[in-house]
Every structure is written in structure tokens, then in C-alpha cells.
Design a protein that fits this description.
CATH class of the largest domain: Alpha Beta
Radius of gyration: 23 Å
Helix content: 40-55%
Number of domains: 2
CATH superfamily of the largest domain: Spore Coat Polysaccharide Biosynthesis Protein SpsA, Chain A
Largest sheet: 7 strands, mixed
Strand order of the largest sheet: 3-2-1-4-8-6-9
Strand content: 5-15%
């Protein structure tokens, strides 16, 4: 029998080891972190609302008249006994002011802060958000965006159900509405991917981010940690950078019941989505060193998986190495599709797993493009 080493040239051997290494790294992430969300026991609906935990829902809006008309009443009519809604109207130039004034006459628990002059020395919406949090009369803050609508009337109660004496941060899921088209599928896949990642890491005791579309934390934590002062010059980061700075394994919980979700309006052109995605990724460089390493290793490994596969196949000179490559590719995509099948069902995205191999390949090369683009152009405005 011919020794295995003799079947492979030095270059083939090196390329095989590299390919195996990146495949194993990816599989470790899939089964150590992602699987915690995919195979977590389905949470039951919160049977008992906690009337002893009042909450202030804080929303910032700039020129969001149409979205406010559609979404704000759904927030104001939540099935929860003790809550207020604070809307910070951040220098809007549309008809938001008059609409908000009419809602104040109808809802006694609705308060509006109108910022009439653009004196924002914070980047993005951080000043508006900080003013809303400071004005809140309750210690528990629940955040969402003007273009988001709760998935149910029990959104607040489900998000509040995770709080106990030790919990200061609750991470939720914010999805996007389904419309026809390739871009929408791509956006929704990306959203599920990010959710599986940050929620899975949180379950593993390594919380590193949350999304402002659905995020709750204690007002006392906000002021104790200095709020947004450590990153006030950065347009983004009012959600993920704050969580990255303050979250730990003891003070952070997640909620993934379908009633706790929010839904947002997705971008409808590649150009606007590209800008949004760049803005979201612009904060990663400010994460803690350990988080940057873990996330960077995963992103790098996923890109190198495809590159090393191509190199490996180009150097292949026997069917044996092709069988090895096929086996590793099967393990990668079987794990990917299995996890996204169950995670997709959890996040009301049951068909996305069918596209997961294609979209995984696209993002393996698209994410580096976003990162490089941010190196040359960092001015990512909120509105």
C-alpha cells in the first residue's frame, strides 16, 4: 500500500492542513455557539406579567412621520400594566410634531421630547437617546426604533420577563419584514446570522452586542457606566458598543419567544443597504479585545475556508484528496443548513436555510469589502 504522505506533494499537504484548520474552526463556532440558539428548548409564553416592574419605552425619531403613524400605536397599546413611552423627536422637519401631539391627547402614558435645534454634539442619535433615558421615570428602559413594530401585544411583557434581581441587560431579536426579491432574502439571512451569533455568544456567557431595535437595560446601569461618553464621537454604537462595555455573563439575559420580536422595514436598494451595513460594522473596531479576536477569527476563517478550498482543489492530483475535500465541505454545509433550519424556524424564517450555502459564500467575501470600505470612508450618518 502506498503511504498517505506519498500521495500528496508538500504543497498539497500544506493546503490540506490549512483547509482542515479553517473548517474545524468554523465547525467549533457552529456547534459551540450557534447551536445554543438553534437547539434551545422552545420558550413558553410568559404566563404571568410582572406588574412590579414598570418600564419606560424610549424611541428616537427624525423625519419618521410615516413610520410613526404605522408603528407607534402598536407600542402604545401594549398589553402591559405599567409602562410609559418616551418619543424623542430629534429635529424633525416633517409632520411628526403634529402627529405626536395628537397622540399625546389620546394616550396618558405618552411623552414627547421635541428637540427644535440641531445642537447635537454627540454623533448619531446618542444625544437624543440619552435625553430620553434621562427623562424616563422608571428604572427599566426598553429601546426600539421608529421604523419597528412589535410582533405582538405582549412584546413588553416578554422582554420584561427576563429581568430578575441580577439582570441588568436583556437582549432581544429584531427582524425585517418579508418582501419579494433577492436583496430582501439576503438582508433577512444576514439578520438571522447576526442574531444567532450575538445571542449564542450571550448564552455561552460572552455577550458582546445587542440591537437597538429590541434592547432593554437598567437606567442605573446607563448612568453608572457613563452612558455613551466613551464613544460619543462615533455615529453608531448606541446599542452594540454600550452592551459591549457593560454586559457580562452575570448581568445579561436573552429573550427569543416569538411574541418578543420586533419587525423593521428593510432597505429596498443595494445602495441604501450597503450604507446601512457599513454603518453597523463600523463599530466592531471598538469592541473589547477578546470579542474582536473571536469575531475576527470567525470572519477570517469563513473567508479562508473558500479560498483554501479553491487552492486545495487546484493542487489536487488524486481522487483521495477530492474525497477529503468533499467530506469537509459536506460537514461544513450540513452543519450550516441544519443550524439555520432550526434557528430560522425560531425566528420565523423557516425557508432561509435553503439559501444558506449561497449566502454564506456571498458574505464571506462581502464582509471584507464592508470592512475595507470603512477604512477609507468612515462618515456614516444616522439620518
Amino acid at each position: 500500500m502506498i503511504p498517505f504522505n506519498d500521495l500528496l506533494s508538500d504543497f498539497q499537504w500544506i493546503s490540506l492542513l490549512i483547509f482542515v484548520f479553517f473548517t474545524v474552526v468554523i465547525l467549533v463556532y457552529y456547534w459551540l455557539y450557534y447551536s445554543r440558539i438553534a437547539f434551545r428548548n422552545t420558550p413558553k409564553a410568559n404566563a404571568s406579567i410582572k406588574p412590579d416592574l414598570p418600564v419606560s419605552v424610549v424611541i428616537c425619531a427624525r423625519n419618521e412621520y410615516e413610520n410613526l403613524k404605522s408603528n407607534l400605536p402598536l407600542v402604545l397599546e401594549q398589553n402591559y400594566p405599567a409602562f410609559e413611552v418616551i418619543l424623542v423627536n430629534d429635529f424633525s422637519e416633517d409632520d411628526s410634531y403634529f402627529f405626536l401631539k395628537s397622540l399625546q391627547e389620546k394616550y396618558h402614558n405618552f411623552n414627547v421630547i421635541n428637540l427644535r435645534e440641531n445642537v447635537n454634539f454627540f454623533a448619531g442619535k446618542k444625544l437624543a437617546l440619552a435625553l430620553g433615558i434621562k427623562s424616563a421615570k422608571f428604572d427599566t428602559i426598553l429601546l426600539t426604533d421608529a421604523d419597528c413594530s412589535p410582533a405582538s401585544q405582549n412584546w413588553i411583557s416578554e422582554m420584561m420577563s427576563a429581568f430578575d434581581d441580577k439582570t441588568e441587560i436583556v437582549l432581544g431579536y429584531g427582524g425585517y419584514r418579508k418582501i419579494k426579491g433577492f436583496l430582501n432574502n439576503l438582508i433577512r439571512f444576514d439578520t438571522v446570522s447576526i442574531a444567532v451569533q450575538y445571542l449564542g455568544f450571550a448564552l455561552a456567557g460572552k455577550p458582546y452586542m445587542g440591537v437597538g431595535r429590541n434592547l432593554a437595560y437598567k437606567k442605573e446601569l446607563f448612568f453608572r457606566s457613563g452612558g455613551f461618553t466613551s464613544h460619543y464621537k462615533i455615529n453608531s454604537g448606541d446599542d452594540d458598543l454600550f452592551v459591549n462595555k457593560t454586559a457580562n455573563r452575570k448581568n445579561t439575559q436573552i429573550v427569543i419567544h416569538p411574541d418578543s420580536f420586533t419587525l423593521s422595514e428593510p432597505k429596498k436598494s443595494f445602495g441604501t443597504w450597503f450604507k446601512q451595513k457599513k454603518r453597523h460594522l463600523s463599530t466592531g473596531g471598538y469592541y473589547k479585545a477578546g470579542d474582536k479576536f473571536r469575531l475576527g477569527l470567525l470572519a477570517f476563517s469563513n473567508t479562508m475556508f473558500y479560498i483554501s478550498l479553491v487552492v486545495f482543489l487546484a493542487l489536487a492530483q488524486s481522487f483521495l484528496v477530492l474525497y477529503i475535500a468533499a467530506g469537509l465541505v459536506f460537514l461544513k454545509f450540513f452543519s450550516l443548513m441544519l443550524i439555520y433550519y432550526y434557528a430560522g424556524k425560531r425566528f420565523n424564517e423557516p425557508k432561509l436555510f435553503l439559501y444558506s450555502p449561497i449566502f454564506d459564500m456571498i458574505f464571506a467575501f462581502l464582509n471584507p469589502v464592508f470592512a475595507i470600505s470603512n477604512l477609507f470612508y468612515r462618515k456614516n450618518k444616522w439620518k
